[in-house]
């Protein structure tokens, strides 16, 4: 698989923006919505940097038509949003909540009326608290509950929605949620968290088969991938980078694309809880591979007494986003990841969609006019060029998605990090497009001409 196949780089790239339910909807206690692990997280004292609870935030549950109008002005081909599991199925089991489904019915219809393709994600981290209480993604049964939930959504929306993502960033859930506790559900299990990888991927495979049976034409999983670079030429740093690449990239991509896990035993890690037919289900053919990219990762060997064999260190000479040195800005690293995927997986790799790409920078909570966010424009311009570079090198990439349409609740960072093309006053919900909104709109228009 060393020779890249010829891809048609003249194929028109589709343009999109993304959001996620918990980050923009608000209305946590309205419409029969249940409780998720992120409700538990934000209600825990000190868990969120600014003490916020995602309320009201953009309040898209009530203001979704404002968002559709913004999408129309932007001129995107599609809109990647997520469906809240607990809004549709409050306890994670049983019948659907009619009020929750009605909200997504209204949103889908409004998008179609506006000429914007709805591209929902079934799971963007809002696991029902009741299922977490039974073990969450450590428990194999959660994969089957997700399959049931997928069937409810497909039955309700499948007559109008044909493009679907199943699960968003299982790497973040497993490594940050269950391994080190930075995200919900705040567990610190280190390598004992690895079963959550397998059960999320199994859930993806089961869901893919259900969506296909319901007539879906485009189905994929979404993962956050990174270019992993050793901090030095030392053997120890190279070994640490190799281990990190397996845990962050390969353990999530290879079961889906190749039908098997990389060798975890060689790294001294526990085996995955694979049962008969699991890998066949996980590697069910998909139509797209959703790839989120934000930054490369520089890895050094950790101290001998550390429970993990690597540590993330600043990338030398790189500017960084509002998240600090661990989020360096290196657009060429995106090209590196894309070419590496094509080289490594060859004809097993479906067309790639850049399902998230964006940057946060310090911005005020309230504004009286558009923010001149030149740093974000520079970030997006550089990474779109990196995508085009990869396409010219033979990688088939069909879609590019900016994270995010709106300033939103940024998980453990609360409202302190702003990724949006549109500024949101989180006290009032007022939306003000930034300079980057106009820049992206113009870029889309010119790309189509």
UniProtKB/TrEMBL annotation:
InterPro entries xref list: GH, Glyco_hydro_1, Glyco_hydro_1_beta-glucosidase
Similarity comment: Belongs to the glycosyl hydrolase 1 family.
Species: Microbacterium pumilum
One Pfam family in the UniProt entry: Glyco_hydro_1
Keyword annotations of the record: Carbohydrate metabolism, Cellulose degradation, Glycosidase, Hydrolase, Polysaccharide degradation
Record's catalysed reaction(s): Hydrolysis of terminal, non-reducing beta-D-glucosyl residues with release of beta-D-glucose
EC number, as in UniProt: 3.2.1.21
Superkingdom of origin: Bacteria
Protein name, per record: Beta-glucosidase
